[in-house]
């Protein structure tokens, strides 16, 4: 048994790390746009990168180290993605990192911002002198990776084990646009002081991403810089089941923050698919629904008509049958074979559900036991006429 307790102050709860942020002068409001995370001793690294074939220079730079490696430093910047910059972009990283006045082991860099522009090396190198490499300022480094984000994304938990010992896990994240279920224009750094084996890090991180960052959609695009990294200082006890639960909790909550912060969005919706032929087919349906622009604009218009939901399921290619399908908005039945039209009472109830900031669309395909949950939002900046009902 174990207990997971929420903590304040983000990364500051994790032993063995230092972090901070400064302004290098790229953000017009003077807020931090340049940060770091480091340790005195090497930390284990587990990483998952974008599926976009045009990976940005920082990702290609990190991949040079191979699958399993340790590091003791990562440099972070916003306002410039260093993507589509070729070998020159990788060389720029090496030059910038060579100016860090520390003994670096497999140093990393991570970037977000405009694609297709070289890093402004001189400004970044000059700003390095502003860093206090002994600082532990989670807010400063969380702010440094924000771009179009409307709010800071930061979480921390203490996990108390049955033997009376504990470990901590914390994370910062950015992301608000270019997001679909292949990760996002997002950067996420998860720190823990649990002494977790490398093999468990990779296994559990991939599992956590599947049910969180790879289960969300904002606008259906996939960036060149998507990055999730897990760092372990190994300072404290470790329990696999407890760590898995805490990691899943932290990634899911951060993923939902991204959806909530989606550019122009006002609603967070979960798509709970049950009764599919397999979990894989349930995943296909859930992600089709979370990605559908027709569905997103219907959510924005608070249109309770179920036609766009059913149409998207039918177009997904999975096994389904209108005779076994049922669709609910929260607990309000909007469709099954005996209720193909919304009567006035159910329509009013469904409309009331859709006016909420957060709700569930639950679909049972009735053909098996497969299930999956995806998360999405409306798309407030997409102008599509949702006044005419969609039926087929």
TrEMBL record:
Active site: 185
Cellular component terms per the entry's GO annotation: cytoplasm
Site, Cleavage: residue positions: 184-185
Gene3D superfamilies: ArgJ beta chain, C-terminal domain, L-amino peptidase D-ALA esterase/amidase
Assembly behavior: Heterotetramer of two alpha and two beta chains.
Gene Ontology biological process terms, A to Z: L-arginine biosynthetic process; ornithine biosynthetic process
HAMAP family found in the cross-reference section: ArgJ
Entry EC number(s): 2.3.1.35, 2.3.1.1
Residues reported to bind substrate: 147, 174, 185, 263, 387, 392
UniProt keyword annotation of Cytoplasm present: yes
UniProt family annotation: Belongs to the ArgJ family.
Function as written in the Swiss-Prot or TrEMBL entry: Catalyzes two activities which are involved in the cyclic version of arginine biosynthesis: the synthesis of N-acetylglutamate from glutamate and acetyl-CoA as the acetyl donor, and of ornithine by transacetylation between N(2)-acetylornithine and glutamate.
GO molecular function: L-glutamate N-acetyltransferase activity; L-glutamate N-acetyltransferase activity, acting on acetyl-L-ornithine as donor
Domain of life from the UniProt record: Bacteria
Positions marked as site (Involved in the stabilization of negative charge on the oxyanion by the formation of the oxyanion hole): 112-113
Location relative to the cell: Cytoplasm
Protein name as it appears in the record: Arginine biosynthesis bifunctional protein ArgJ
Reactions the enzyme catalyzes: L-glutamate + acetyl-CoA = N-acetyl-L-glutamate + CoA + H(+); N(2)-acetyl-L-ornithine + L-glutamate = N-acetyl-L-glutamate + L-ornithine
Associated pathway: Amino-acid biosynthesis; L-arginine biosynthesis; L-ornithine and N-acetyl-L-glutamate from L-glutamate and N(2)-acetyl-L-ornithine (cyclic): step 1/1; Amino-acid biosynthesis; L-arginine biosynthesis; N(2)-acetyl-L-ornithine from L-glutamate: step 1/4
Originating gene: argJ
């Amino acid at each position: 048994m174990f207990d997971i307790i929420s903590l304040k102050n983000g990364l500051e709860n994790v032993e063995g790390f230092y972090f901070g942020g400064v302004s290098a002068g790229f953000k017009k409001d003077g807020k931090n746009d340049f940060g770091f995370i480091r340790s005195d001793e090497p930390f284990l690294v587990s990483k998952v990168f974008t599926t976009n074939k045009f990976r940005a220079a920082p990702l290609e730079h990190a991949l040079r180290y191979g699958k399993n490696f340790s590091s003791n430093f990562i440099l972070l910047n916003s306002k410039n993605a260093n993507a589509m910059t070729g070998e020159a972009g990788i060389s720029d990283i090496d030059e910038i990192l060579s100016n860090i006045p520390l003994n670096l082991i497999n140093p990393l860099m991570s970037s977000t911002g405009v694609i297709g522009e070289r890093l402004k090396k001189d400004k970044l190198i000059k700003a390095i002198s502003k860093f206090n490499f002994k600082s532990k300022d989670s807010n400063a480094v969380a702010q440094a990776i924000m771009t179009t984000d409307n709010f800071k994304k930061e979480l921390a938990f203490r996990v108390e084990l049955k033997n009376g010992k504990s470990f901590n896990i914390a994370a910062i994240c950015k992301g608000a646009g270019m997001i679909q279920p292949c990760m996002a224009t997002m950067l996420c750094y998860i720190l823990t002081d649990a002494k977790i084996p490398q093999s468990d890090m990779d296994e559990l991180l991939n599992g956590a991403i599947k049910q969180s960052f790879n289960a969300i959609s904002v606008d259906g695009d996939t960036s060149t810089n998507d990055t999730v990294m897990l760092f372990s200082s190994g300072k404290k006890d470790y329990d696999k089941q407890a760590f898995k639960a805490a990691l899943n909790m932290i990634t899911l909550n951060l993923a939902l923050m991204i959806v909530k912060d989606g550019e122009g969005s006002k609603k967070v919706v979960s798509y709970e698919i049950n009764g599919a032929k397999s979990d894989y087919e349930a995943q296909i349906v859930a992600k089709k629904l979370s990605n559908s622009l027709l569905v997103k604009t219907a959510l924005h218009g608070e249109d309770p008509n179920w036609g766009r939901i059913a149409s998207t399921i039918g177009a997904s290619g999975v096994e389904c049958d209108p005779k076994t399908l049922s669709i609910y908005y929260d607990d309000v039945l909007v469709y099954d074979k005996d209720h193909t039209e919304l009567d006035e009472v159910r329509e009013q109830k469904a409309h009331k559900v859709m006016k909420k900031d957060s709700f569930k669309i639950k679909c049972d395909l009735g053909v098996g036991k497969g299930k999956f949950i995806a998360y999405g939002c409306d798309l407030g900046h997409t102008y599509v006429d949702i006044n005419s009902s969609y039926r087929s």
